[in-house]
Specification:
Number of strands of chain B: 6
Largest sheet of chain B: 6 strands, parallel
Distance between the termini of chain A: 54 Å
Largest sheet of chain A: none
Shape of chain B: elongated
Distance between the termini of chain B: 78 Å
Strand content of chain B: 5-15%
Helix content of chain A: 55-70%
Number of helices of chain B: 16
Radius of gyration of chain A: 20 Å
Radius of gyration of chain B: 26 Å
Order of helices and strands of chain A: HHHH
Number of helices of chain A: 4
Largest interface: A-B, 90 and 124 residues
Number of strands of chain A: 0
Oligomer: heterodimer
Helix content of chain B: 55-70%
Strand content of chain A: under 5%
Strand order of the largest sheet of chain B: 3-2-1-4-5-6
Structural class of chain A: mainly alpha
Shape of chain A: flat
Order of helices and strands of chain B: HHHHHHHHHHHEHHEHEHEEEH
Chain lengths: 106, 479
Protein backbone atom coordinates (compact mmCIF):
# COMPACT_ATOMS: atom_id res chain seq x y z
CA UNK A 1 0.00 0.00 0.00
CA UNK A 2 1.23 3.48 -0.72
CA UNK A 3 2.32 5.83 2.10
CA UNK A 4 -0.59 8.22 1.51
CA UNK A 5 -3.11 5.45 2.03
CA UNK A 6 -1.29 4.31 5.18
CA UNK A 7 -1.39 7.77 6.72
CA UNK A 8 -5.05 8.11 5.72
CA UNK A 9 -5.75 4.82 7.55
CA UNK A 10 -3.93 6.18 10.62
CA UNK A 11 -6.08 9.35 10.52
CA UNK A 12 -9.20 7.21 10.13
CA UNK A 13 -8.36 5.05 13.15
CA UNK A 14 -7.54 8.01 15.39
CA UNK A 15 -10.68 9.88 14.33
CA UNK A 16 -12.79 6.86 15.32
CA UNK A 17 -11.19 6.83 18.77
CA UNK A 18 -11.77 10.56 19.15
CA UNK A 19 -15.42 10.00 18.21
CA UNK A 20 -15.82 7.34 20.91
CA UNK A 21 -14.26 9.59 23.56
CA UNK A 22 -16.23 12.71 22.70
CA UNK A 23 -19.56 10.94 22.42
CA UNK A 24 -19.44 8.69 25.44
CA UNK A 25 -19.58 11.72 27.73
CA UNK A 26 -22.82 13.21 26.42
CA UNK A 27 -25.83 12.92 28.80
CA UNK A 28 -28.99 11.19 27.58
CA UNK A 29 -30.85 14.50 27.60
CA UNK A 30 -28.85 15.61 24.61
CA UNK A 31 -28.88 12.37 22.66
CA UNK A 32 -31.45 13.49 20.10
CA UNK A 33 -29.74 16.81 19.32
CA UNK A 34 -26.44 14.94 19.30
CA UNK A 35 -27.70 12.43 16.78
CA UNK A 36 -28.94 15.29 14.66
CA UNK A 37 -25.67 17.19 15.09
CA UNK A 38 -23.60 14.17 14.07
CA UNK A 39 -26.02 13.72 11.18
CA UNK A 40 -25.19 17.19 9.89
CA UNK A 41 -21.44 16.57 10.19
CA UNK A 42 -21.56 13.72 7.68
CA UNK A 43 -22.95 16.31 5.30
CA UNK A 44 -19.23 16.97 4.77
CA UNK A 45 -19.73 14.60 1.86
CA UNK A 46 -20.84 17.81 0.10
CA UNK A 47 -17.12 18.61 -0.24
CA UNK A 48 -16.66 15.29 -2.04
CA UNK A 49 -19.63 16.06 -4.28
CA UNK A 50 -18.10 19.45 -5.20
CA UNK A 51 -14.77 17.83 -6.01
CA UNK A 52 -16.35 15.28 -8.36
CA UNK A 53 -18.49 18.01 -9.93
CA UNK A 54 -15.26 19.85 -10.83
CA UNK A 55 -13.94 16.75 -12.60
CA UNK A 56 -17.20 15.85 -14.38
CA UNK A 57 -16.75 15.53 -18.13
CA UNK A 58 -19.71 13.63 -19.56
CA UNK A 59 -23.50 13.72 -19.10
CA UNK A 60 -23.64 10.79 -16.67
CA UNK A 61 -21.02 12.24 -14.34
CA UNK A 62 -22.70 15.68 -14.55
CA UNK A 63 -25.93 14.04 -13.44
CA UNK A 64 -24.28 12.04 -10.64
CA UNK A 65 -22.41 15.09 -9.36
CA UNK A 66 -25.53 17.27 -9.51
CA UNK A 67 -27.64 14.86 -7.46
CA UNK A 68 -24.74 14.38 -5.03
CA UNK A 69 -24.44 18.16 -4.50
CA UNK A 70 -28.22 18.49 -3.98
CA UNK A 71 -28.21 15.63 -1.45
CA UNK A 72 -25.10 16.85 0.36
CA UNK A 73 -26.39 20.43 0.59
CA UNK A 74 -29.76 19.25 1.95
CA UNK A 75 -27.92 17.17 4.56
CA UNK A 76 -25.66 20.04 5.66
CA UNK A 77 -28.10 22.95 5.68
CA UNK A 78 -31.11 21.04 6.98
CA UNK A 79 -29.06 19.17 9.57
CA UNK A 80 -27.55 22.24 11.19
CA UNK A 81 -30.78 24.24 11.13
CA UNK A 82 -32.89 21.50 12.69
CA UNK A 83 -30.24 20.83 15.36
CA UNK A 84 -30.11 24.52 16.20
CA UNK A 85 -33.89 24.58 16.42
CA UNK A 86 -33.84 21.70 18.91
CA UNK A 87 -31.08 23.21 21.01
CA UNK A 88 -32.57 26.66 21.14
CA UNK A 89 -35.36 25.14 23.20
CA UNK A 90 -33.01 24.09 25.98
CA UNK A 91 -33.12 27.02 28.31
CA UNK A 92 -32.71 27.21 32.04
CA UNK A 93 -35.97 29.02 32.61
CA UNK A 94 -39.01 29.70 30.48
CA UNK A 95 -38.58 33.06 28.77
CA UNK A 96 -42.08 34.08 29.73
CA UNK A 97 -44.51 31.99 31.73
CA UNK A 98 -47.39 32.75 29.35
CA UNK A 99 -48.61 29.98 27.11
CA UNK A 100 -48.83 32.39 24.17
CA UNK A 101 -45.06 32.87 24.01
CA UNK A 102 -44.16 29.29 23.30
CA UNK A 103 -41.37 28.89 20.80
CA UNK A 104 -41.78 30.28 17.34
CA UNK A 105 -43.07 28.82 14.18
CA UNK A 106 -45.34 25.96 15.24
CA UNK B 1 -0.17 31.43 -5.34
CA UNK B 2 1.46 28.31 -6.67
CA UNK B 3 -0.72 25.19 -6.80
CA UNK B 4 1.22 23.53 -3.96
CA UNK B 5 0.77 26.57 -1.74
CA UNK B 6 -2.89 26.77 -2.56
CA UNK B 7 -3.40 23.11 -1.68
CA UNK B 8 -1.43 23.55 1.56
CA UNK B 9 -3.57 26.47 2.66
CA UNK B 10 -6.76 24.61 1.73
CA UNK B 11 -5.52 21.52 3.55
CA UNK B 12 -5.02 23.54 6.74
CA UNK B 13 -8.50 25.00 6.37
CA UNK B 14 -9.89 21.47 6.05
CA UNK B 15 -8.01 20.44 9.19
CA UNK B 16 -9.40 23.48 11.01
CA UNK B 17 -12.90 22.44 9.90
CA UNK B 18 -12.34 18.87 11.13
CA UNK B 19 -11.03 20.16 14.49
CA UNK B 20 -14.12 22.33 14.84
CA UNK B 21 -16.34 19.28 14.33
CA UNK B 22 -14.62 17.59 17.26
CA UNK B 23 -14.80 20.71 19.45
CA UNK B 24 -18.43 21.25 18.50
CA UNK B 25 -19.39 17.70 19.40
CA UNK B 26 -17.52 18.04 22.67
CA UNK B 27 -19.47 21.19 23.58
CA UNK B 28 -22.71 19.31 23.00
CA UNK B 29 -21.94 17.54 26.29
CA UNK B 30 -23.85 20.07 28.31
CA UNK B 31 -27.15 21.81 27.62
CA UNK B 32 -25.57 25.16 28.44
CA UNK B 33 -22.93 24.95 25.69
CA UNK B 34 -24.70 22.64 23.24
CA UNK B 35 -26.10 25.32 20.98
CA UNK B 36 -22.73 27.02 20.77
CA UNK B 37 -21.18 23.64 19.97
CA UNK B 38 -23.51 23.11 17.06
CA UNK B 39 -22.57 26.57 15.77
CA UNK B 40 -18.86 25.83 16.04
CA UNK B 41 -19.50 22.68 14.04
CA UNK B 42 -21.53 24.64 11.46
CA UNK B 43 -18.72 27.20 11.18
CA UNK B 44 -16.24 24.38 10.60
CA UNK B 45 -18.51 23.09 7.85
CA UNK B 46 -18.74 26.55 6.27
CA UNK B 47 -14.95 26.85 6.31
CA UNK B 48 -14.49 23.38 4.78
CA UNK B 49 -17.06 23.94 2.02
CA UNK B 50 -15.99 27.54 1.37
CA UNK B 51 -12.28 26.76 1.01
CA UNK B 52 -13.11 23.81 -1.24
CA UNK B 53 -14.84 26.23 -3.59
CA UNK B 54 -11.90 28.67 -3.38
CA UNK B 55 -9.51 25.83 -4.11
CA UNK B 56 -11.47 24.72 -7.16
CA UNK B 57 -11.62 28.26 -8.52
CA UNK B 58 -8.02 29.09 -7.66
CA UNK B 59 -6.30 25.97 -9.04
CA UNK B 60 -4.58 26.34 -12.41
CA UNK B 61 -7.21 24.45 -14.40
CA UNK B 62 -9.95 26.50 -12.72
CA UNK B 63 -13.58 25.51 -12.30
CA UNK B 64 -15.40 24.75 -15.59
CA UNK B 65 -18.65 26.63 -16.16
CA UNK B 66 -20.70 23.44 -16.11
CA UNK B 67 -19.26 22.54 -12.70
CA UNK B 68 -20.03 26.05 -11.41
CA UNK B 69 -23.64 25.61 -12.46
CA UNK B 70 -23.87 22.14 -10.93
CA UNK B 71 -22.45 23.33 -7.61
CA UNK B 72 -24.44 26.57 -7.38
CA UNK B 73 -27.79 25.29 -8.59
CA UNK B 74 -27.39 22.02 -6.70
CA UNK B 75 -26.53 23.87 -3.51
CA UNK B 76 -29.48 26.23 -3.87
CA UNK B 77 -31.95 23.40 -4.50
CA UNK B 78 -30.61 21.03 -1.83
CA UNK B 79 -29.89 23.74 0.72
CA UNK B 80 -33.26 25.37 0.06
CA UNK B 81 -35.08 22.10 0.62
CA UNK B 82 -33.08 21.42 3.79
CA UNK B 83 -33.69 24.89 5.17
CA UNK B 84 -37.41 24.80 4.41
CA UNK B 85 -37.91 21.33 5.86
CA UNK B 86 -35.82 22.03 8.97
CA UNK B 87 -37.65 25.29 9.70
CA UNK B 88 -41.15 24.05 9.12
CA UNK B 89 -41.29 20.51 10.41
CA UNK B 90 -43.27 19.97 13.60
CA UNK B 91 -41.08 18.89 16.51
CA UNK B 92 -42.98 15.60 16.71
CA UNK B 93 -42.01 14.80 13.10
CA UNK B 94 -38.37 15.53 13.74
CA UNK B 95 -37.10 11.92 13.91
CA UNK B 96 -38.37 11.33 10.36
CA UNK B 97 -36.66 14.47 9.14
CA UNK B 98 -33.33 13.45 10.67
CA UNK B 99 -33.79 10.13 8.90
CA UNK B 100 -34.42 11.90 5.58
CA UNK B 101 -31.27 14.04 5.99
CA UNK B 102 -29.43 10.85 6.81
CA UNK B 103 -30.77 9.21 3.65
CA UNK B 104 -29.57 12.01 1.38
CA UNK B 105 -26.17 12.06 3.09
CA UNK B 106 -25.75 8.34 2.48
CA UNK B 107 -27.01 8.77 -1.07
CA UNK B 108 -24.46 11.52 -1.74
CA UNK B 109 -21.62 9.33 -0.41
CA UNK B 110 -22.77 6.46 -2.66
CA UNK B 111 -22.93 8.77 -5.70
CA UNK B 112 -19.40 10.09 -5.08
CA UNK B 113 -18.14 6.50 -4.96
CA UNK B 114 -20.12 5.46 -8.06
CA UNK B 115 -18.84 8.45 -10.03
CA UNK B 116 -15.28 7.64 -9.03
CA UNK B 117 -15.60 4.02 -10.08
CA UNK B 118 -16.98 5.00 -13.48
CA UNK B 119 -13.91 7.19 -13.99
CA UNK B 120 -11.22 4.74 -12.88
CA UNK B 121 -12.74 1.76 -14.66
CA UNK B 122 -13.18 3.82 -17.82
CA UNK B 123 -9.50 4.65 -17.75
CA UNK B 124 -8.45 1.14 -16.74
CA UNK B 125 -6.79 2.61 -13.67
CA UNK B 126 -8.59 0.78 -10.90
CA UNK B 127 -6.21 -0.32 -8.16
CA UNK B 128 -7.00 -2.97 -5.59
CA UNK B 129 -7.27 -0.65 -2.60
CA UNK B 130 -9.21 2.04 -4.44
CA UNK B 131 -11.65 -0.61 -5.67
CA UNK B 132 -12.19 -1.81 -2.11
CA UNK B 133 -12.94 1.68 -0.77
CA UNK B 134 -15.15 2.53 -3.74
CA UNK B 135 -17.22 -0.60 -3.29
CA UNK B 136 -17.49 -0.06 0.47
CA UNK B 137 -18.57 3.56 -0.03
CA UNK B 138 -21.13 2.63 -2.70
CA UNK B 139 -22.58 -0.30 -0.74
CA UNK B 140 -22.77 1.37 2.66
CA UNK B 141 -24.15 4.55 1.12
CA UNK B 142 -26.81 2.61 -0.80
CA UNK B 143 -27.89 0.60 2.25
CA UNK B 144 -28.18 3.83 4.24
CA UNK B 145 -30.15 5.56 1.52
CA UNK B 146 -32.94 3.02 1.15
CA UNK B 147 -32.81 2.00 4.82
CA UNK B 148 -33.29 5.60 6.01
CA UNK B 149 -36.08 6.22 3.50
CA UNK B 150 -37.93 3.15 4.79
CA UNK B 151 -37.30 4.20 8.41
CA UNK B 152 -38.65 7.69 7.71
CA UNK B 153 -41.66 6.17 5.92
CA UNK B 154 -42.41 3.97 8.93
CA UNK B 155 -42.18 6.89 11.36
CA UNK B 156 -44.34 9.08 9.13
CA UNK B 157 -46.89 6.30 8.87
CA UNK B 158 -46.50 5.98 5.09
CA UNK B 159 -45.35 2.41 5.63
CA UNK B 160 -46.88 0.26 8.34
CA UNK B 161 -44.99 0.54 11.61
CA UNK B 162 -45.54 -3.13 12.22
CA UNK B 163 -42.72 -5.48 11.37
CA UNK B 164 -43.20 -6.58 7.77
CA UNK B 165 -41.89 -10.07 7.38
CA UNK B 166 -40.67 -10.86 3.90
CA UNK B 167 -41.09 -14.55 3.02
CA UNK B 168 -37.68 -16.14 3.53
CA UNK B 169 -36.53 -12.63 4.48
CA UNK B 170 -33.39 -13.75 6.25
CA UNK B 171 -32.48 -15.88 3.27
CA UNK B 172 -32.92 -12.91 0.92
CA UNK B 173 -30.79 -10.71 3.16
CA UNK B 174 -28.04 -13.31 3.42
CA UNK B 175 -28.20 -13.94 -0.34
CA UNK B 176 -27.85 -10.22 -1.05
CA UNK B 177 -24.86 -9.98 1.24
CA UNK B 178 -23.31 -13.02 -0.44
CA UNK B 179 -23.87 -11.52 -3.90
CA UNK B 180 -22.23 -8.26 -2.78
CA UNK B 181 -19.21 -10.03 -1.27
CA UNK B 182 -18.70 -12.32 -4.27
CA UNK B 183 -19.06 -9.44 -6.74
CA UNK B 184 -16.62 -7.35 -4.74
CA UNK B 185 -14.16 -10.22 -4.93
CA UNK B 186 -14.61 -10.33 -8.70
CA UNK B 187 -14.02 -6.59 -9.01
CA UNK B 188 -10.91 -6.65 -6.84
CA UNK B 189 -9.55 -9.57 -8.89
CA UNK B 190 -10.24 -7.64 -12.08
CA UNK B 191 -8.59 -4.48 -10.71
CA UNK B 192 -5.54 -6.54 -9.86
CA UNK B 193 -5.38 -8.18 -13.29
CA UNK B 194 -6.71 -5.58 -15.69
CA UNK B 195 -7.12 -2.26 -13.85
CA UNK B 196 -10.88 -2.63 -13.81
CA UNK B 197 -11.10 -2.20 -17.58
CA UNK B 198 -12.98 -5.43 -18.35
CA UNK B 199 -16.33 -5.24 -20.05
CA UNK B 200 -18.18 -6.77 -17.13
CA UNK B 201 -16.88 -4.61 -14.32
CA UNK B 202 -19.55 -1.93 -14.69
CA UNK B 203 -22.31 -4.54 -14.76
CA UNK B 204 -20.92 -6.23 -11.67
CA UNK B 205 -20.53 -2.86 -9.95
CA UNK B 206 -24.14 -2.01 -10.82
CA UNK B 207 -25.17 -5.34 -9.33
CA UNK B 208 -23.36 -4.51 -6.08
CA UNK B 209 -25.11 -1.13 -5.81
CA UNK B 210 -28.48 -2.75 -6.52
CA UNK B 211 -27.79 -5.39 -3.86
CA UNK B 212 -26.96 -2.59 -1.40
CA UNK B 213 -30.18 -0.72 -2.19
CA UNK B 214 -32.25 -3.89 -1.74
CA UNK B 215 -30.39 -4.83 1.41
CA UNK B 216 -31.36 -1.48 3.00
CA UNK B 217 -35.02 -2.25 2.32
CA UNK B 218 -34.99 -5.86 3.52
CA UNK B 219 -33.00 -4.86 6.59
CA UNK B 220 -35.40 -2.17 7.85
CA UNK B 221 -38.82 -3.49 6.75
CA UNK B 222 -38.98 -6.30 9.35
CA UNK B 223 -38.13 -3.94 12.22
CA UNK B 224 -41.01 -2.57 14.30
CA UNK B 225 -41.78 1.16 14.41
CA UNK B 226 -40.68 1.68 18.00
CA UNK B 227 -37.20 0.31 17.26
CA UNK B 228 -36.70 2.98 14.58
CA UNK B 229 -34.67 5.30 16.86
CA UNK B 230 -32.02 2.63 17.22
CA UNK B 231 -32.14 1.93 13.50
CA UNK B 232 -31.81 5.60 12.56
CA UNK B 233 -28.86 5.92 14.90
CA UNK B 234 -27.26 2.84 13.35
CA UNK B 235 -27.86 4.16 9.83
CA UNK B 236 -26.42 7.51 10.92
CA UNK B 237 -23.28 5.66 11.89
CA UNK B 238 -23.30 3.90 8.49
CA UNK B 239 -23.52 7.21 6.65
CA UNK B 240 -20.52 8.51 8.57
CA UNK B 241 -18.59 5.41 7.54
CA UNK B 242 -19.73 5.80 3.91
CA UNK B 243 -18.53 9.43 3.95
CA UNK B 244 -15.15 8.28 5.31
CA UNK B 245 -14.92 5.67 2.51
CA UNK B 246 -15.71 8.40 -0.02
CA UNK B 247 -12.88 10.36 1.63
CA UNK B 248 -10.46 7.48 0.99
CA UNK B 249 -11.66 7.28 -2.61
CA UNK B 250 -11.02 10.93 -3.43
CA UNK B 251 -8.09 11.25 -1.01
CA UNK B 252 -9.66 13.92 1.17
CA UNK B 253 -8.69 14.12 4.89
CA UNK B 254 -11.66 16.15 6.11
CA UNK B 255 -14.11 13.55 4.75
CA UNK B 256 -12.13 10.79 6.45
CA UNK B 257 -11.98 12.55 9.82
CA UNK B 258 -15.59 13.77 9.87
CA UNK B 259 -16.89 10.46 8.55
CA UNK B 260 -14.98 8.41 11.12
CA UNK B 261 -16.10 10.76 13.89
CA UNK B 262 -19.75 10.30 12.96
CA UNK B 263 -19.30 6.58 12.43
CA UNK B 264 -18.01 6.26 16.00
CA UNK B 265 -20.61 8.66 17.41
CA UNK B 266 -23.50 6.82 15.80
CA UNK B 267 -22.08 3.49 16.96
CA UNK B 268 -21.85 4.58 20.61
CA UNK B 269 -25.28 6.17 20.53
CA UNK B 270 -26.80 3.05 18.99
CA UNK B 271 -25.30 0.90 21.72
CA UNK B 272 -26.53 3.24 24.48
CA UNK B 273 -30.04 3.16 23.05
CA UNK B 274 -30.09 -0.60 22.65
CA UNK B 275 -28.74 -1.03 26.22
CA UNK B 276 -31.50 1.18 27.61
CA UNK B 277 -34.04 -1.17 26.07
CA UNK B 278 -32.15 -4.21 27.29
CA UNK B 279 -31.79 -5.50 23.77
CA UNK B 280 -28.80 -6.22 21.65
CA UNK B 281 -28.32 -4.45 18.35
CA UNK B 282 -28.30 -7.83 16.59
CA UNK B 283 -31.61 -8.70 18.22
CA UNK B 284 -33.16 -5.46 16.92
CA UNK B 285 -31.80 -5.97 13.41
CA UNK B 286 -33.16 -9.51 13.38
CA UNK B 287 -36.50 -7.75 13.62
CA UNK B 288 -40.01 -8.96 14.14
CA UNK B 289 -40.19 -7.76 17.74
CA UNK B 290 -43.20 -5.82 18.92
CA UNK B 291 -46.24 -4.66 17.06
CA UNK B 292 -45.21 -1.08 16.49
CA UNK B 293 -47.77 1.56 17.24
CA UNK B 294 -51.44 0.79 17.25
CA UNK B 295 -51.04 -2.70 18.62
CA UNK B 296 -54.49 -3.66 19.73
CA UNK B 297 -54.23 -5.40 23.04
CA UNK B 298 -57.03 -7.25 24.69
CA UNK B 299 -58.33 -6.08 28.02
CA UNK B 300 -56.40 -7.60 30.85
CA UNK B 301 -57.65 -11.07 31.54
CA UNK B 302 -54.94 -11.83 34.03
CA UNK B 303 -55.98 -11.23 37.64
CA UNK B 304 -56.51 -7.93 39.33
CA UNK B 305 -59.10 -5.37 38.46
CA UNK B 306 -58.61 -1.97 36.93
CA UNK B 307 -59.84 1.11 38.75
CA UNK B 308 -61.06 3.87 36.44
CA UNK B 309 -61.03 7.42 37.82
CA UNK B 310 -62.58 10.69 36.69
CA UNK B 311 -60.69 13.93 35.99
CA UNK B 312 -62.25 15.54 39.05
CA UNK B 313 -60.90 12.83 41.39
CA UNK B 314 -57.45 13.18 39.88
CA UNK B 315 -57.56 16.99 40.05
CA UNK B 316 -58.20 16.90 43.80
CA UNK B 317 -55.43 14.34 44.31
CA UNK B 318 -52.99 16.50 42.37
CA UNK B 319 -54.00 19.84 43.81
CA UNK B 320 -53.53 18.70 47.41
CA UNK B 321 -50.34 16.76 46.83
CA UNK B 322 -47.04 18.14 48.00
CA UNK B 323 -44.99 16.34 45.37
CA UNK B 324 -45.99 15.13 41.90
CA UNK B 325 -43.80 13.30 39.40
CA UNK B 326 -44.94 13.37 35.78
CA UNK B 327 -43.91 10.41 33.62
CA UNK B 328 -44.30 11.30 29.95
CA UNK B 329 -44.16 8.70 27.20
CA UNK B 330 -44.84 8.05 23.58
CA UNK B 331 -48.57 8.79 23.97
CA UNK B 332 -47.71 12.36 24.98
CA UNK B 333 -45.69 12.80 21.81
CA UNK B 334 -48.39 11.34 19.58
CA UNK B 335 -51.09 13.54 21.10
CA UNK B 336 -48.74 16.59 20.96
CA UNK B 337 -49.69 17.24 24.55
CA UNK B 338 -46.41 18.81 25.65
CA UNK B 339 -47.91 22.31 26.04
CA UNK B 340 -50.88 20.95 27.95
CA UNK B 341 -48.66 19.08 30.40
CA UNK B 342 -46.57 22.19 31.02
CA UNK B 343 -49.74 24.20 31.66
CA UNK B 344 -50.93 21.64 34.19
CA UNK B 345 -47.51 21.61 35.87
CA UNK B 346 -47.52 25.41 36.16
CA UNK B 347 -51.00 25.39 37.66
CA UNK B 348 -49.87 22.86 40.26
CA UNK B 349 -46.68 24.79 41.00
CA UNK B 350 -48.72 27.94 41.54
CA UNK B 351 -50.53 25.98 44.27
CA UNK B 352 -47.22 25.08 45.87
CA UNK B 353 -46.92 21.54 44.53
CA UNK B 354 -43.40 20.34 43.77
CA UNK B 355 -43.47 19.07 40.16
CA UNK B 356 -40.77 17.03 38.45
CA UNK B 357 -40.62 15.07 35.23
CA UNK B 358 -39.19 11.54 35.12
CA UNK B 359 -37.55 10.89 31.76
CA UNK B 360 -36.84 7.31 30.78
CA UNK B 361 -33.95 7.16 28.32
CA UNK B 362 -36.04 5.49 25.63
CA UNK B 363 -39.38 7.16 26.26
CA UNK B 364 -40.71 8.44 22.95
CA UNK B 365 -39.16 7.65 19.65
CA UNK B 366 -35.59 8.80 20.02
CA UNK B 367 -33.35 9.01 23.06
CA UNK B 368 -33.96 12.41 24.57
CA UNK B 369 -37.18 12.79 22.57
CA UNK B 370 -39.15 13.71 25.70
CA UNK B 371 -36.57 16.32 26.65
CA UNK B 372 -36.87 17.98 23.27
CA UNK B 373 -40.67 17.97 23.31
CA UNK B 374 -40.88 19.35 26.82
CA UNK B 375 -38.20 21.92 26.09
CA UNK B 376 -40.31 23.02 23.16
CA UNK B 377 -43.13 23.65 25.59
CA UNK B 378 -40.77 25.80 27.71
CA UNK B 379 -40.40 23.32 30.55
CA UNK B 380 -37.18 24.34 32.34
CA UNK B 381 -34.68 21.54 31.86
CA UNK B 382 -33.59 21.32 35.54
CA UNK B 383 -37.11 19.93 36.18
CA UNK B 384 -36.43 17.03 33.82
CA UNK B 385 -34.88 14.21 35.82
CA UNK B 386 -33.18 11.22 34.36
CA UNK B 387 -34.05 7.72 35.49
CA UNK B 388 -31.25 7.08 38.00
CA UNK B 389 -31.82 10.46 39.59
CA UNK B 390 -35.60 10.28 39.92
CA UNK B 391 -36.11 6.63 40.87
CA UNK B 392 -35.27 7.07 44.59
CA UNK B 393 -37.69 10.01 44.69
CA UNK B 394 -40.80 8.05 43.72
CA UNK B 395 -41.13 6.76 47.30
CA UNK B 396 -41.60 10.31 48.53
CA UNK B 397 -43.96 11.36 45.74
CA UNK B 398 -47.65 11.70 46.52
CA UNK B 399 -48.75 11.17 42.95
CA UNK B 400 -47.00 9.72 39.92
CA UNK B 401 -48.84 10.93 36.82
CA UNK B 402 -48.10 8.61 33.90
CA UNK B 403 -49.01 10.13 30.54
CA UNK B 404 -48.86 7.76 27.61
CA UNK B 405 -45.94 5.73 28.93
CA UNK B 406 -46.31 1.99 29.18
CA UNK B 407 -43.50 -0.57 29.02
CA UNK B 408 -40.97 1.71 30.72
CA UNK B 409 -43.14 1.60 33.86
CA UNK B 410 -43.96 -2.12 33.91
CA UNK B 411 -42.86 -3.72 37.19
CA UNK B 412 -42.74 -7.09 35.37
CA UNK B 413 -39.33 -5.97 34.12
CA UNK B 414 -37.91 -6.66 37.59
CA UNK B 415 -38.73 -10.37 37.34
CA UNK B 416 -37.22 -12.81 34.90
CA UNK B 417 -39.43 -14.49 32.33
CA UNK B 418 -41.10 -11.50 30.70
CA UNK B 419 -40.20 -9.92 27.36
CA UNK B 420 -39.21 -6.73 29.18
CA UNK B 421 -37.23 -8.51 31.91
CA UNK B 422 -34.07 -6.72 32.84
CA UNK B 423 -35.06 -3.49 31.14
CA UNK B 424 -34.39 -0.59 33.49
CA UNK B 425 -37.74 0.93 34.45
CA UNK B 426 -39.02 3.96 36.29
CA UNK B 427 -40.09 2.93 39.80
CA UNK B 428 -43.51 4.46 39.34
CA UNK B 429 -45.15 1.80 41.54
CA UNK B 430 -43.19 3.08 44.55
CA UNK B 431 -45.18 6.32 44.58
CA UNK B 432 -47.96 6.70 47.16
CA UNK B 433 -50.57 6.82 44.43
CA UNK B 434 -50.47 6.50 40.68
CA UNK B 435 -52.60 8.01 37.94
CA UNK B 436 -52.29 6.74 34.37
CA UNK B 437 -53.68 8.72 31.44
CA UNK B 438 -54.09 6.32 28.57
CA UNK B 439 -56.52 5.83 25.74
CA UNK B 440 -57.33 2.20 26.44
CA UNK B 441 -55.98 -0.91 28.08
CA UNK B 442 -54.07 -1.55 24.84
CA UNK B 443 -50.66 -3.04 25.21
CA UNK B 444 -47.43 -1.22 24.77
CA UNK B 445 -44.74 -1.91 22.29
CA UNK B 446 -43.58 -5.10 23.98
CA UNK B 447 -47.08 -6.52 23.53
CA UNK B 448 -47.58 -7.50 27.17
CA UNK B 449 -49.93 -6.35 29.89
CA UNK B 450 -48.67 -3.75 32.33
CA UNK B 451 -49.00 -4.90 35.93
CA UNK B 452 -48.89 -1.28 37.03
CA UNK B 453 -52.45 -0.81 35.78
CA UNK B 454 -53.88 -3.47 38.07
CA UNK B 455 -51.98 -2.18 41.10
CA UNK B 456 -54.52 -1.16 43.79
CA UNK B 457 -52.77 2.21 44.09
CA UNK B 458 -53.36 2.97 40.42
CA UNK B 459 -56.24 4.94 38.97
CA UNK B 460 -56.76 4.84 35.21
CA UNK B 461 -57.96 7.95 33.43
CA UNK B 462 -59.01 6.70 30.01
CA UNK B 463 -58.45 9.55 27.57
CA UNK B 464 -56.22 10.82 24.82
CA UNK B 465 -53.24 12.53 26.47
CA UNK B 466 -54.15 15.99 25.22
CA UNK B 467 -57.87 15.75 25.90
CA UNK B 468 -57.27 14.15 29.30
CA UNK B 469 -54.83 16.88 30.31
CA UNK B 470 -57.25 19.60 29.16
CA UNK B 471 -59.95 18.10 31.39
CA UNK B 472 -57.48 17.88 34.28
CA UNK B 473 -56.46 21.50 33.81
CA UNK B 474 -60.02 22.78 33.99
CA UNK B 475 -60.74 20.49 36.91
CA UNK B 476 -57.67 21.72 38.82
CA UNK B 477 -58.69 25.32 38.14
CA UNK B 478 -62.07 24.57 39.64
CA UNK B 479 -60.68 22.98 42.83
Amino acid sequence: MNPELLSALAIFTLAILVGFEVISKVPATLHTPLMSGANSIHGIVLVGAMLIAAEADHPLSYALAFVAVVFGAANVVGGYVVTDRMLQMFRKKPVAPKAATSSEGE
Amino acid sequence: MSPEWLYTVVFFAWLAGAAMFVIGLHQMNSPATARGGNRVSALGMTIAVGTTLLYLVGRPEGLPTAAWIIILVGFLIGGGFGLYAARNVAMTAMPQLVSVFNAVGGGAAALVAIDDYLRISNQGQATVDETIFVVLGAVIGSVTFTGSVIAAGKLQGLISGKPIMIPAGRLVTVALAAVAVASTGALVWDAWQAGGASTWTLVIFGGIVAAGLLFGITMVLPIGGADMPVVISLLNSFTGTAAAMAGFVIGNPVLIIAGALVGAAGGILTKLMADAMNRSIMNIIAGGFGGGEGTVGALTETGGSVRAVTPDDVAIQLAYASSVIIVPGYGLAVAQAQHAVRELAELLEARGVDVKYAIHPVAGRMPGHMNVLLAEANVPYPQLKEMEEINPEFERADVALVIGANDVTNPAARRPGSPVSGMPILDVDHARSIVVIKRSMGRGYAGIDNELYTNPKTGMLFADAKAGLAELISAVKAV
